[in-house]
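Hello forum,

I keep getting stuck at the same step: I have a sequence, I want structure tokens, and every attempt I make locally crashes halfway through. Rather than fight my setup again tonight, could one of you with a working pipeline run this one for me? It's a single chain of 61 residues.
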Amino acid sequence: MGISFWQILIVVALLVILFGRGKISELMGDVAKGVKSFKKGINDDDEPNSINKSEDNSKKE
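Reply #2:
Ran it on my machine without issues. Output:
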């Protein structure tokens, strides 16, 4: 007895009525920017670690 298609459709319709299309698309755009920023931050953190590891290897030799 899970959530049916009609229940999801009713919830989506209520959200559109309450917030409007513009507000929902603006919110989704903000979420997308946040995810992109998060991924960029994760990638930026990984790069210095790889540089430091190569420096550590050269010191050991």
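The CA atoms of residues 16 and 60 lie 61 Å apart. If your local run keeps crashing, start a new thread with the error log.
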